[in-house]
C-alpha cells in the first residue's frame, strides 16, 4: 500500500521514482495558460506536464489547461503568472528576459549553438539548464521546464530564399527583443516587431514579407495559406518554459513542490519528441498544401554571420557563458 511521503529538496530526486500520496485533502487547483493551438508542441508540453504531475500525486492536484490564447497571448500569460492571476504558464522563452529582466534564458536561443533536438534535450535537463530556470526566482517565478517546441525556419510570402543574399531587405516579423533584432539584422533582413496573433494578416496584406517560424506554427496558424516559400535553416530552437507563480509554489507542501519540479523534468523529452517528429513529418503536409520547401544553399555563411553574437551574449551573463561552454562541449 502507498503511504505518505515527505520529500525534502535534498532527497527529492531519489524519492521521485514513486508517486507522492497525501490523503484526506482536496485537490489543489492549478490553471496553466498558454497561447498555442492544440496541434502545437506547446500544447503537448502542457498536457505532458499535467499528466506527469497528476500521476506523481494522484488525486492531489487538478491542472486545468487554457490554451489557444483563451486567457491571453504569450506575453499576457507570462505576466499573469508573475502577478498570480494564473498559477502556471507556458510561454516562449525569449519573452522571459523581456518581461522579467532575467537574461539567462537567451542562452537557449543563441543562433546555431544547439544543433538539434537531442542536443537541446541534453542541455535542458543539465545542471546549467536548471541554474537558468532557477534564475527566474527574483522575478517571482519558479521555472519548472524548458523544452524545444520547434526548430525555426524561414517562411516568405513574397519570394523564395535560396541563399543568404536573398534575405536582404525582406521585412521579417520578429519578437521585438534585442537578441532577435541583432540576429535578423545580421542576416540582412529588415526586422519588424509584431505580436504572434497578427502574423497571418500581416503576411496576407504584405505588411511584412516573411516570418522566422517553426513548422508547427505554420500549421497551427494556417500560415501556409499566405506564405508559400519555406526555407529550412534551423537557425535556433523555439524554447518554451513552464513556470509557476513563486508565491503559489512556496505555499505548497514539500511533496507537491518536488512533484511539480519532477513533472517538468520528466515531461521534457516527450514534448521534444513530438516537436521533432512534427517538424519532419509535417513538411510533406505543407508540400501538399502548395508550400515550396528548400534548404538554404549557403547555410555555413549564415552561421558565420551569427557567430559573433554568441560571444557577445556570453560576455553579458556568467550563466550564458557557462551554458555556451557546456553546450559546445556537448555538441
From TrEMBL:
Compartment(s) where it occurs, according to its Swiss-Prot or TrEMBL record: Cell envelope
Pfam assignment, any one: DctP
Domain of life: Bacteria
Cellular component GO terms, alphabetical: outer membrane-bounded periplasmic space
A biological process term (GO) from this entry: transmembrane transport
Keywords of the record: Signal, Transport
Main localization, broad class: other
UniProt xrefs under Gene3D superfamilies: Bacterial extracellular solute-binding protein, family 7
Family under the similarity heading: Belongs to the bacterial solute-binding protein 7 family.
PANTHER family in the record: PTHR33376, SIALIC ACID-BINDING PERIPLASMIC PROTEIN SIAP
NCBIfam families on file: TRAP_S1
Full protein name: TRAP transporter substrate-binding protein
Source organism of the structure: Phreatobacter stygius
Amino acid at each position: 500500500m502507498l503511504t505518505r511521503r515527505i520529500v525534502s529538496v535534498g532527497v527529492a530526486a531519489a524519492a521521485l521514482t514513486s508517486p507522492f500520496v497525501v490523503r484526506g485533502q482536496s485537490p489543489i487547483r492549478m490553471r496553466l495558460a498558454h497561447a498555442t493551438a492544440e496541434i502545437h508542441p506547446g500544447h503537448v508540453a502542457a498536457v505532458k506536464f499535467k499528466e506527469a504531475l497528476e500521476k506523481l500525486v494522484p488525486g492531489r492536484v487538478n491542472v486545468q489547461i487554457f490554451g489557444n490564447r483563451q486567457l491571453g497571448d504569450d506575453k499576457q500569460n507570462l505576466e499573469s503568472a508573475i502577478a498570480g492571476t494564473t498559477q502556471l504558464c507556458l510561454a516562449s522563452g525569449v519573452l522571459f528576459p523581456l518581461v522579467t529582466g532575467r537574461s539567462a534564458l537567451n542562452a537557449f536561443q543563441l543562433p546555431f549553438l544547439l544543433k538539434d533536438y537531442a542536443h537541446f534535450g541534453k542541455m535542458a535537463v543539465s545542471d546549467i539548464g536548471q541554474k537558468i530556470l532557477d534564475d527566474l526566482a527574483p522575478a517571482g517565478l519558479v521555472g519548472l521546464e524548458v523544452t524545444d517546441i520547434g526548430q525555426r525556419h524561414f517562411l516568405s510570402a513574397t519570394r523564395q530564399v535560396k541563399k543568404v543574399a536573398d534575405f536582404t531587405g525582406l521585412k521579417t516579423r520578429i519578437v521585438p527583443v534585442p537578441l532577435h533584432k541583432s540576429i535578423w539584422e545580421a542576416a540582412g533582413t529588415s526586422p519588424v516587431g509584431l505580436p504572434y496573433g497578427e502574423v497571418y494578416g500581416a503576411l496576407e496584406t504584405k505588411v511584412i514579407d516573411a516570418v522566422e517560424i517553426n513548422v508547427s506554427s505554420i500549421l497551427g496558424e494556417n500560415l501556409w495559406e499566405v506564405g508559400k516559400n519555406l526555407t529550412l535553416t534551423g537557425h535556433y530552437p523555439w524554447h518554451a518554459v513552464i513556470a509557476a507563480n513563486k508565491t503559489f509554489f512556496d505555499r505548497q507542501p514539500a511533496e507537491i513542490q518536488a512533484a511539480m519540479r519532477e513533472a517538468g523534468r520528466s515531461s521534457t523529452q516527450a514534448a521534444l519528441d513530438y516537436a521533432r517528429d512534427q517538424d519532419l513529418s509535417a513538411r510533406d503536409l505543407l508540400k501538399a498544401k502548395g508550400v515550396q520547401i528548400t534548404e538554404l544553399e549557403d547555410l555555413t555563411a549564415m552561421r558565420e554571420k551569427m557567430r559573433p553574437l554568441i560571444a557577445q551574449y556570453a560576455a553579458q551573463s556568467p550563466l550564458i557563458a557557462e551554458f555556451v561552454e557546456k553546450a559546445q562541449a556537448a555538441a
